[in-house]
Predict the 3D structure of the following.
Amino acid sequence: MPSTKQYGTAGPANEAIGGIPTIHYLDFASRGRGQVVRLMWEDAGIAYTDVRYTFEEYPEYKKTVIAEKNPTTNVPVVEINGKILTQSYAMLRHFARQLGEYDGTTEEEKYWADAMCDIAVDWRTQFVNAFFHPQKEETYPQHQKTERVRFLTAFETHLTRHELSLPGPYVLGPTITYADLVLYQVLHDENLTQEGMAGLQDYPRLRQLADAVERRPNVKAFRESERYLG
């Protein structure tokens, strides 16, 4: 049976998004596309219900419970007040608009947050393809030497050259966006933020961004709690 746990106390942020959401996702530690949704909720102070499916039981639930909620049978799936939300990055933008934060204020800022998110999504696709490949022992080391370096270099360049990112520490300078959370989660899932962020030693601007995310009070409390599974 899937595990179901409720976290937090409903407050103004829950009112802003219309209630207490329930997320359906794999029991995949604190990793993956579902985790970045949780990360935003934790940072924003949103209470939520967390339903986790083990990899062994998920195929059966995918054909039944998940298929009834999402025709593509993909997770994460979020339920809130009888509504069903799918596609993790669309969810993040949706919640950002409801909260009135996390995506900038001007059209230029919104574009830059969207663009940086899209680059991170492209990176995640390459990462997942290599990491879950049947010949992972060959494909993932090759990814680490090629595509991962390409994306790390691209982000470091964008963050140190684009006028909106220059002030730091986030994509939009002092203001956090959903794009920062998406990028942080990819860095984490590639094991670049562990061990004192040793994997980012050659990318100081990316390290600054990741460190700023981890130092946010609610994120810090989350990472130090039993809710955070590594």
